[in-house]
Every structure is written in structure tokens, then in C-alpha cells.
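B., you asked whether I could sanity-check this one before it goes into the benchmark set. Here's the sequence:
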Amino acid sequence: MEIRLTQEQWEQFQADLYERDERLERREPGGTYSRDERVDAYVLSAHAEALYSQDIDPDLWETLADLEMEAGSEEDAWRMIREFYLERGCVLVKIGEDLNTDVGPEEREEWLFSERLAERLGLLPGA
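And here's what the prediction gave me:
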């Protein structure tokens, strides 16, 4: 499954998250949350299966090695990682201003989450 978000939607999504006891959750309106429960991109990355981002080093080669795969380029590595996780029911979240086109690697922002986590965080339609 693939979900596309604008940069603004992505930032709002992250702002609505908190982490408590190493569990990522979505804030409830009127809830009370301490500062140390805030979630930034680095905290979020610890909960993702894999990611491709210009802001966070995705370490594609380590991820690929963990999957016992090899690739000739970073682009191929990400394609193989993405396919691996999508075949296992993960959710791909693509972030960008122009949701109607695919961007090149220099502008790519893609995150892979387990379906269970994506559902719990309200990323899936109807969640």
C-alpha cells in the first residue's frame, strides 16, 4: 500500500505523535504530554522499517546487508528494500509537494512502516 502526503501533512502527522515507554502513539485532543515524549524525525525513524530521506541518513547499505541482498547503486538498493517490505504488507509513505509525480533520489522522502503501526498512527484510510 502507498500513501502520499504533502510536506505540510507530513509535518502535522509528526507533530501529532508522542513516544511513551518506547511505544509510538498519536496524540489525543486535550491529552497531556510531557516534552520528553515529543517525536522528531530521528525518533520516528527508530519505528520505521526503512526510509529514504535527505534529512536522515537512511543507511541503505546496512539495511540491504541485513536483508542479505546486494545492489549496484543506491537507487537499486532502495528499490530492493522497498519491494522487500511492500511484499510483506508494509505501508509506503511518500512525502512531497507534488503528489502526482515521482521525484528523483535527490528529492525523495519515503518511509516504510508496518501496516499495524501505520494503522495505529492513523495513516491508513478510515483509521
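One thing to flag: The mean pLDDT is 88. Otherwise nothing jumped out at me.
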